[in-house]
Amino acid sequence: MRSGKSAQFRLARFPRPRPVFPNLIFANPDGTPLRPNSVSGAVSRICKQVGLPKGASLHVLRHSHASQLAERGVDLPTISERMGHSSVRTTADIYAHAMRGRDEAAARVWDAIQESDHAGRSKSVN
């Protein structure tokens, strides 16, 4: 038994090098990746504890995050990168619903461009 404690002491003094995963959001204490199911389960428990509606999960929070970014005009390449999608097309297919109604804003921008161009031409003609 004594030699076991001695070995534990030696290991504690010289811990194994930790793997380096700098892009992990969630990691075990030793720096290794968590299994996806353990992350999802933990987030679901937290959602329940803080009183979010039944069914709230990591997936729902992720989707809400991206949808709200799209609704507020964040460009698709940025959202795609944040979501880790392989292509912007994937992001567009999933989050197109959040960008509906943006045509009116685009029309206002186009009108402003046309007015600006028209005003510039009128001044140069006179």
Can you offer a commentary on this structure?
This protein is an all-alpha fold. It has one domain (2-125). The chain contains 6 helices and no strands. It has helices at 2-13, 36-49, 58-71, 76-83, 88-95, 103-125. It is elongated, with a radius of gyration of 26 Å. The mean pLDDT is 81.
Annotation keywords:
63% helix
Task: Provide a quick synopsis of the model.
The protein has about 130 residues and is mainly α.
Distance between the termini: 100 Å
Our Rg estimate from Cα atoms comes to 26 Å
Q: In total, how many beta strands? A: 0
Low-confidence stretches: none
Mean pLDDT: 81
Biggest pleated-sheet summary: none
Write the layout of secondary structure elements.
Layout: H1 2-13, H2 36-49, H3 58-71, H4 76-83, H5 88-95, H6 103-125
Helix pairs in contact: 3-4, 4-5
